[in-house]
Amino acid sequence: GKALLKKLPIAAGVLLFAGALVFTSCSNGSDSGGGTPKHVVTFGVEGGNGTLKAKVDGTEINSGDKVEQGKIVTFTATADDPAQYNVDYWTVSPGPFEEGTGTIGSTSAKLKVVQPATVTVKFKLTSAPPTMCTVSFGVSGTGGTLKATVDGTEITSPAQVEKSKTVVFTAEAALGYAVEKWTDGGTPIAAAGTNTTYNHTVNADANIAVHFKTAPVDVYVSGRSGDKGYVWKNGAPTKLRPNETDPSVEVSPYAVRSRGKDVYIAGEENWGSVYPRVWKKDGSLHWLGTNRWSMAYDIAFYKGKTLVAGHTYDGTDSGASITDISDTANPVVTYLCKESPQIHLTKVRALYAESGKLYAAGYKQDGTTYKTTVVLWTVTDAGTVSELELGRDGQGAGTSTGMMYGLCTAGSSVYVATGNLWKVEGTTVTSITVPEANGVYALCVCNGIVYAAGQTDYDGGSKAAVWKIEGTNASLHKELSTVSSGVYALCTGRDDLYAAGFYYDTGHKFKPVWWHIAADGTLTENKLGTAEGEALGICLAAQE
Questions:
Q1: How far is CA 190 from the centre of its chain?
Q2: Which 8-state DSSP code applies to residue 63?
Q3: CB under 8 Å to 523, separation ≥6 — which residues?
């Protein structure tokens, strides 16, 4: 039952592993002898070109010697020819080394002995490239995205990463999902848990995957009821508070958007002049625009920024605008199109950020004929704005300021809904005929498929409906109501669709409502109170 120890041969000052350590089945490389335990420490050079020595309390030891538990072993690596070779990297199993030692290129390392351990050092040519290994990564199944960076630079899978470098993985769950676990080659990574980030030190080839699970969501709807502005959370109303206390003040919320568990509502406050506003989900004001005769119709989050789309009049210039309100005390306005004698009126009605690009949809009215033309703007990170005219808005002359616009992307295509529907591919604009539609005003993408929502035609009364868009073909997906109604906003979560709009009750009043369309086609209608009004925005947020 006693271990047999075979010492490694030493030649020319180089310690090489000839047969490592040979043990019988009854030894684990440790003994106590009734006192402080001792553990076998083996060490050597991987691939030659240098030597590795070790000392304990200033006394040199040989590979395979037993070291008293709790002692510090100091390892020193020396290249045979320092002009040609230097240290590449260290390995320790199990580890780790003492903090700050055993790093890439270091000539020394320290290890506190707590159990049998093996230490190696590898040398490299001073002009040789670092040792790489392959790191693959991705999402197992669906439910979100996974990004990876090395030294702050994003990498794509599979990537060649220098050994001992740290890869920072960041998982972003889609609405209705949360991180379930992380795996490497299918084996769970206990240290990563259910965190949205995981730091992986590269010591060998790796295949990192993040797994998502379904998670509950809250549904938020913005709109008006009884001449007051509200945000509804799962049907429960919260009144949006105006900045002014005058009883004649009107609050008009439009879009509602979420970022994690944070929810923001874009709209306007009217007390003789119109001012843009953004509210939080508790009804309090998040941002107060100080420019009169200005509006906020949509809100989006883009590369860490919070952006509001609409119209700005700053006392000198007036026109379609995007305002960066990331610093609410110092908003920054970017004009996409300014009004002039040739342009009577221009506004942004929808904003969409996807795949590193920012899109805005709105309109221009000619200064002579007052003809309304729908416009798609693309904004680069450098602030360059390109403009593409799509056509008439399909809502009739002079009515475009009162209706909602839809905007989304699918692959390389951009879709715009303003009553009419267009598909934009580069600079190619294709009008899409939507069967049985009186108008479509909202868009979203669910599992790669574009859906448009609005109203059916007048035959038997217009009804709220959703259409499926495939390329340039449209087909009716679901009619949402049996009474006169319409959809102004549409969003998705997991495999389901959520729509918000209005219905016409038996008292001949329009009232706010939202619908849930499950993946299996099950429809749930949710009426928002009994007062007259309409719902103009809908979004999902991670449940609190």
A1: 24
A2: T
A3: 478, 480, 515, 516, 517
Which amino acid type is present at position 61?
I
Show the 3-state SS of 285-307. EEEECCCCCCEEEEEEEECCEEE
DSSP letter for 419, please. Answer: B
Convert the pLDDT of each residue in 58-76 to its tens digit: 999 999 999 999 999 999 9
Residue 61's alpha-carbon distances to 35, 38, 49, 64, 90, in angstroms, are 20, 14, 21, 9, 19
Q: Three-state DSSP class for 402?
A: helix
Residue 106, both tokens: 């270091």
User: Angle at CA 86, nearest 5°, toward 84 and 91?
Assistant: 145
Q: Cα dist. 513→232, 482, 502 in Å?
A: 10, 13, 5
Distance CA 207, CA 184 (A): 5
Task: Quote the CA–CA distance of 463 and 479 in Å, as a whole number.
Answer: 7
- Judge whether 419 and 381 are in contact, CB under 8 Å: no
pLDDT of residue 34: 63
Backbone angles phi, psi at 402, to 5 degrees: -105, 0
Residue 229 has pLDDT above 70, yes or no: yes
| Amino acid type, 105 | G
CA 271 to CA 265: how far, in whole Å? 19
Q: Find how far residue 467's CA is from the centre of its chain.
A: 27
Q: Which residues contact 364 (CB under 8 A, 6 or more apart)?
A: 320, 337, 343, 345, 346, 372, 373, 375, 389
* Tokens at 208, concatenated: 């990192």
Sign of the four-CA dihedral 97, 101, 104, 106: negative
Taking alpha carbons only, the member of 367, 431, 375 closest to residue 405 is 375
Closest CA to 75 of 93, 96, 97, 94: 97
Kindly report, residue by residue over 234-274, the tens digit of the pLDDT.
Answer: 999 999 999 998 888 999 999 999 998 899 999 999 988 99
Radius of gyration of the chain (CA): 33
How do 132-140 and 206-214 pair as beta strands?
parallel
Q: How far apart are CA 42 and CA 113, in angstroms?
A: 12
What distance in Å separates the CA atoms of residue 109 and residue 527, rounded to the nearest whole number?
69
